[in-house]
Amino acid sequence: MSAVLKPSRIAPGIELSDPAAVADLLDDGAQAFLAELHRRFEPARQACLAERRRRQAGFDAGALPDFREDTRAIRDGNWRVAPVPAALLDRRVEITGPVDPKMVINALNSGANCYMADFEDSTAPTWDNLVAGQRALRAAIAGTLEFTADNGKRYALRPEDERAVLIVRPRGWHLDEKHVLVDAGPDQGGRGQRMSAALFDLGLFAWLNATALAAKDRGPYFYLPKLQSMEEAALWNEVLTHIEHELGLPQGQMKVTVLIETLPAAFEMDEILHALRGRIVGLNCGRWDYIFSYIKTLRAHRDRVLPERSQVTMTQPFLKSYSELLIQTCHRRGAHAMGGMAAQIPIGNDEEANEQALARVRADKLREVTAGHDGTWVAHPALIPLAREVFDERMPGPHQQHLGREEVIVTGRDLLVPSLGTITRIGFENNVEVCVRYLAAWLDGNGCVPIHWLMEDAATAEIARTQLWQWLHAADGGNTPLHLHDGTVIDEALFDRVLLNLPSRLAGQPIPGAGRVQEAIALLEELTHRATLEEFLTLPAYERI
User: Fold this and answer.
1) Catalytic-role residue among 218, 457, 465, 516
2) 468 shares a domain with 497
3) Boundary residue ending a domain (398, 414, 430)
4) Which of 23, 30, 152, 457 might form a disulfide with 122, Cβ 3.0–4.6 angstroms?
5) What CA–CA distance (Å, rounded) separates 436 from 279?
6) EC number(s) of the enzyme (predicted)?
């Protein structure tokens, strides 16, 4: 559990958990800098979150997302984003992962073009994890990061010109950082407001490293997650402009790539690029979060229920349209169109199964490069050579912005088309297992968990969780319940039976977070039975770490 916050007024307005333990990161200057970010931008953040709730209420009432009439001039205009810096021209293979020291070293040494250091979906946001991640990245940028494992194996960085380019992903606008409180007052009950987790992650990283990275012509560079609108993108632009001014950096020095991983954002890709046009270098098909967002946004639309997640591949028409529209939009505006994650990991004890998994990765990467993507993601270093081989063969230049994909015509209906498929008993039970196992590990401090030879993070677990909720609540309001492919009714009794039997199925398996499985089961049970879908699994779970 988190440490109790003790009032600390090292910098006016800031309270920290155990300030002495983080004095090397959060000195007086850093605290004052972060406090000012909070005071300046928290009202606008809250306004954006309120607008999300307003729009979702409309979708729940029967409306569907669509392209905005008030921004048609932006979509029709002939404009381009600022030039892509040299360090980000070739991004054909990017590796992603959490920010613990071993991962940072291995990712930077991996041979990938870029490493997305992730404070978001693959990092459980314990205070220890966040602080260790900031320290590891600072040391990596200084070239001093080393790590020795329990078995004595030593990890060290390769020379700087052999390392992947660092891109940092902060947490999304919807998350708070409960260990940093700002401006206690009577209206707060004597305690401060929680700081935005997004502003904390990005702000502290910039305070510690922006000057050093700018001197090396390496950014700083960021991936921005979970955006839903151009207004949210514009808020990020204001934040980054303010940080550049405060740190004495040239305007536009800090470059960003935005993940298009929410359904509403897919209807505002031009607008998001335009809002960040002085610093954005690309958009990314964050496919797993996008599927999660599709379910969540259309949760009240029974005619948009998705089949089990193994059948929701990028060949589904709504996902194919999303990918092609992203490529067309980016290339028209002079930005990179990044592909999505290959979640597979090597299967060491089954050669045939491993070959089948690698064949799926190869087919996925071939689809991406053929469609016109300028790069792709992998979750494991062993997949880098395969992904690079596919992109090298089909993309001899650093990118494919010359492929305009003018022939692509995507309508709002195309982005929403229902998917064909089934819900099998195995698929239902796998969703329950993934939710429980991932949540148990997350509560135990591990946000990136291998389950059945897939690297699960918060996004993939969210697909499983929201599917379970939607399948069970499809009968709300007197509708006919959904059925498994074998004819079994999908109802709370089925869910409860699967959940009850899960501990015996997991018994004896060396799973991460085993000591918190019962807590994970209780939380999943509560959230799934609830009449209203919880917006993010990590919101209630965060209060338990």
Assistant:
1) 457
2) yes
3) 414
4) 457
5) 40
6) 2.3.3.9
